Fold each of these.
Amino acid sequence: MARIQWLADGVKLPDLDYPLIEKWIDSVVASFQRITGPLTYIFCDDQKILEVNREFLQHDYFTDIITFDDCRGALVRGDIFISLDTVASNAEQVGATYGQELRRVIIHGILHLCGINDKGPGEREIMESHENRALALLNNLENPGNPENTENCVNPENPDNSPNSDEI
């Protein structure tokens, strides 16, 4: 079995550079001192994610992502449902491209599996900060050697970007 599975339910599998996305996921997971285990991404439409939301979470609304956590210690594992319909509408609402928003949502699920929450007071801002760092890391992987790409990257040695003793 592949470590990361990419499935589509009722939609076409998005056109992504999957080997690059997997390398990115591994880098983000490693920045939390964790190991990427079996992950399954299921891309679907709004009707399917609503069905999943109702059945498993008893929520009666659309969402862009539902993450089922099956982590074991440092091993990051789980199933992640992503509604491509909601990704498209969210991209339009926030002024992002579909590809940008899809990448943000892909890593959002991983961040949840790494312990980052977004429902409590102040947590949304923390999640967004981690998303932005992860997206900067992806940009660096896509365009290596560009010094502008490293400013907001997740540093695997220092995932919170807190200053070390040499910087104080």
Note: The chain has five helices and four strands.
Amino acid sequence: MNSAENKLNRSFRPARMSCRVALFDMDGTLVETDAANTAAYRVALAAFGIGLPRATSCRITGADVCRYTPNLSTVDLAAIARAKKTAYASALPLTWLGPATAALRESLQRRDLFARVVLLTESKACRAHETLRHHGLLECFDEIVCNGGRGDKYTNFFTTHAVDPADCVVWENEDSKVKSAITAGVKIENIRKVA
């Protein structure tokens, strides 16, 4: 393990925290949603006579659906997205709390540590709210920011919010998003990489 990985994985206890913002990712960080997301896409695609291989267990995205079904029209793709949105509600029992949930609860109990607690997710707002509500986490956040795949979520957040990236602590599970947070100005020692 190199020194950067050590910094990312060590316990986080900064000295001055009263003005800090806690930024939590949702999928794979607070809540494990891959199985529910894939199940919802299976149902949506089946309505169009399209099957996913049974072994498909990783997260399926709208971009993946476009790659799997290059001959579908934009109207059909939009219908699949609507069907997936509907099917996701019945797939919520396939979700479970992720590894950063304890950190979220600590940040809520210790308001001396964080001035604001924010969910910053690539998820669409309806899915984020549904997922958080299912797990009793919806009221945990001062703000819920759903990027919805519109560019880099950290760059967008710091562009649209009066928040200094150096004053934020980030909980994130994806390496590419950790790099994105660092590029946006979050200090490496303020990143909690969730495995």
Note: The chain is about 40% helix and 15% strand.
Amino acid sequence: MEQWLDQYLDYLKEVKRVSGNTYQAYATDLKQFIAYLRNENVTEFSKITDTRMQAYMLYQKKQNKSAATVSRSFASIKNFISFLIRKRVMDEDPTECIHPPKVDKTAPKSINYEQMIALLEAPNLGTMAGRRDRAILELLYATGIKASELIQLRISDVNIDFGSIHIIKDGKERVLPLGQTVKNALSEYLKDIFRLNPDQEILFCNRMGNGFTRQGIYKIVKDYAKKAGIEETVSLQIIRNSFAVHMFDNGADLNSMQELLGVSDVIAAQRFLQSEKTSTFSVYKRTHPRE
């Protein structure tokens, strides 16, 4: 059974090119499922029945697993079984008539637009560090990118004239539009870089000339949130959530937001480069509050 799991995990990594976190979640879920099967003396995938699947979900519940964890595990197993059916290891899908537990959907934590503006305007633009920090904050809010994506950006990934940045994460590419406000902030910051360190390749560096860590970016956000008088905790994820919430509030559609946030399988960078009038760019221009 393990050899088929290894093949599937290779498939996820090499063909589907899932993120590291997604890969690890699949590996954990499926290893636990196989361990359960062996403990129940099930040594062939073809012997899995719908009753067995229901028993496993009940077993997870007795292990005090949350509904979200059980639901995720079920999805991992269902996708794995689809793979096994394609490989003719299994003939039928025992999960077909089973429904995972419902997960309570809570609204993502975010800050309102007025608080966001206060955060963005907190840096002192009279200093180089302030101009850098303003560019960081504006870029996080303008694009909704993750901190891990931000710290990997190189200057060559930014196209001020076209108004875009190029993101590569876990082998997947996407090109995100930039509004005028963030373009202005980046332009002012890049003037400092080109004047003082024209050989710099990483987009954002700390005072030691090294690229930021995720913790370093979080400290910047935390310090300016305090300076802006925001009482709520403002994390990097909350800025990303706020980007999405404010875009939705202004009428952005789901498909465009999936592309902007990098949670869609149909992202193709070349498609954005062909014309500024592509759907996602026009939606961005119409709905981002800072555009």
Note: Residues 161 and 183 are 9 Å apart (CA to CA).
Amino acid sequence: MDHALDVLSQRFLGGIKRGSYSHAYFVSSPDTERSENLIRRAAALLCTGDERRDISSYADFLNINCAEATIDDIRQMQAELPMRTFSDGMRVVFLKDAQLLDEKKQNTLLKTLEEPPEGTVIFLSGTESGVLPTIRSRCTKLRLPQMNDEDILNTLILEGFDRQCAEKYAPYADGSMSRARRLCSDDKAAQLCDNAEAFIKTILKSEMPFDSVKTFSKDRQSARNSAEYMLAYMRKMLENAVENGGLTDDGFTISIIGDIIKLLTETLGRIDMKYGIGAAFDRLIASTAQIIAAQPLD
């Protein structure tokens, strides 16, 4: 099931072994576990010559969690890059979940990505939504293939998860095994998904659940996950409409579903770009109501 990823990984790592690599990479994947594993293998290869080495404590491997990084952390990293490495070899910087950096922090990175010091390779991971085009354009892009719902379902069952739970949450994993495992093992994650499903169902009834927005407003990552769960639900509706000749069982047309999917994608963009979370979901509610009102169901 991971054949496509294996092929891509071997080609990428093979290039590094031959000395063919870029100064900066953006590894795009909804599955943070898969992208991080590949980046750590590449970093180990660059720094030690052995992709199997644990790079975690290596002095010339700088690991920055963008969910927690401050502007001072970014500037401190930039100040360290021109310095001599501890090993007199390569230095690798890993910026995890780059989409969680605000615009100011991303702009601070631009010059470093364009002209990093010699002997430095920078890896960014995350989703393309929320990462400035100017950042993406300065990196070699590596898009990891996603697992489909069936592969995720089968893997969950093989790993011993309850079949009913696996069948319920595999479609909400968005190609990410780490998310699928979390939904099947973490009650809070599962509840967030359930709340998101209930929320989008309420909106589709032309109701205005503004009071429910607080359920997703606790932090930006929860808000993002919730919007992605809603997107997954709407994509399932779209598949249902296509299979039924253009209408869902509830009478929604492909056109309406497509417009709502576009709204949810825009909502994700607003969340990523640090738009107010409550305002982003309030706008989603109002805009969805307008779409449904303007295109009456048959």
Note: The radius of gyration is 21 Å.
